[in-house]
Amino acid sequence: MTTKNTLSITDNRTGKTYELPITDGTIKAMDLRAIKTDDKDFGMMTYDPAFMNTASCRSAITYIDGDAGILRYRGYDIAELAEKSTHLEVSYLLLHGELPTKPQLDAFSREITMHTFLHENVKDFIDGFRYDAHPMGMLIATVGALSTFYPEAKDIYNKQNRHLQIIRLIAKMPTIAAWSYRHSVGQPFVYPDNDFGYPANFLSMMKKMAEREYKANATLVRALDVLFILHADHEQNCSTSAMRGVGSSQVDPYSAIAAASAALYGPLHGGANEAVLRMLNEIGNVSNVPKFIDEVKNGKGSRLMGFGHRVYKNYDPRAKVIKRLADEVFEVTGKNPLLDIALELERIALQDEYFVKRKLYPNVDFYSGLIYQAMGFPVDMFPVLFAIPRTVGWLAQWAEMLDDSEQKIARPRQIYTGKELRPFVPMEKR
Ligand code: CMC
Q1: Is the CB of 241 under 6 A from ligand 1?
Q2: Which of 117, 243, 301, 374 is the most buried (most CB within 10 A)?
């Protein structure tokens, strides 16, 4: 049989057959428009709520094979990057497609370091929040507000200008994050320290009190950097799709990052690590785990947070690295008492038919919260700790979209299910 890279579709309403080209295992949804019952017919569309089976772009940044549990940035395996690289090196890789040479990395790190300060007015802006404001809410608002400080950022097709905004965003997100936290606990803001690397500077802005210089533990600095690497990108997830969707209107990157951060805040996405910790606290004791699992299974309780993934139907490769990392961190900080509950949940879930059948495995958020907590970060900061490293992924995807001639403003279709045209009803007749 001769084979062709096409798909033949027969419309049984009309008896007509259409031949559509197949490229990279996909057909173009727009090719379906030719399938019509008559000239007046709009043409066939696809219906795909939650984008379960629709590719919205071509991307050369991140590769995931969810069945095999594979994650690669620009072709490099995530576990190898986590072991051998740094977050700034990975940031360069995500943005430029190649690992930097030593001079390239030095120049990139220097550029980032030179842009970590925030305009002094930003302090007043953050101070305006209520004393108990959630740091993620402050982060979302403050990064959006930066668009008012850099109005030239609108010039998104000017490559030099775009580069400057990318550097600013990667550099300033940790400062915004740390200041949001300091405000929420009523402590003075700590300015960036240019003598520190990216994760150590963030820890200093979070934790420094009266000492002349904050001395972070080297194991914890490295652990934070590895967590940053693991969270840097994850192809077309909810927040990245928000970044691309909002960015496709050609808005400035600060506004688009605010939208992406808002998407990340939800408990089904970057808010999950916060939800995991609350869940572990609620369970309270290893002996309560079987009852909790039963409630998850019979729908009486919540979901098992930190389990399951739209794409991974296998152990999340990031969770594997994080589980190992947790041991290193706990050697310094002492074991997080919630770890035993988490391990018992995992042990039971991995052999329970409900979870096995649905291919529900621990995801990146299952163990990351335990590490963050052991490192002294409050639970409210967990989604913020996700947003800092994901910023580079959002920006790499945004820049790729702007350079993609196939992209236009994102504008899905709908199937209208409402009323047909009807006459207006005067108030007295309703
Ligand atoms: N606990 C219990 N049951 C679950 C869970 C869970 N965590 N996740 C999925 N299921 C069940 C779900 O009830 C459904 O069962 P049934 O077929 O009987 O109706 C089945 O598994 C398929 O679930 P789904 O909701 O159709 O799957 P999805 O691809 O839409 O959802 C998910 C993916 C991540 C939103 C979901 O697994 C979930 O809510 N997990 C908990 C939240 C979480 O940990 N999120 C972090 C994701 S990783 C970090 C990130 O990317 O932000």
Answers
A1: no
A2: 243
Helix (H/G/I), strand (E/B), else coil: 37: coil
Contact between 201 and 116 (Cβ < 8 Å): yes
Q: Is the CB of 306 under 6 A from ligand 1?
A: yes
Torsion of CA 374, 376, 380, 386, to 10 degrees: -70
pLDDT for 272 beyond 90 = no
Atom 29 of ligand 1, nearest CA residue: 310
CA 62–ligand 1 middle distance (angstroms): 22
* Ordered structural domains, the chain, with CATH: 68-263+387-402 (1.10.580.10), 272-374 (1.10.230.10)
Q: Are 217 and 225 in contact (CB under 8 A)?
A: no
Describe the chain by its helix, strand, coil percentages, rounded to 5: 55, 5, 40
pLDDT tens for residues 122-179? 999 999 999 999 999 999 999 999 999 999 999 999 999 999 999 999 999 999 999 9
pLDDT tens column, 320-363: 999 999 999 999 999 888 999 999 999 999 999 999 999 999 99
Is 310's C-beta closer than 6 angstroms to any atom of ligand 1?
yes
- Active-site positions read 269, 309, 365
Cβ partners under 8 Å of residue 417, min gap 6: none
d(CA 201, CA 198): 5
CB 167 within 8 Å of CB 115: yes
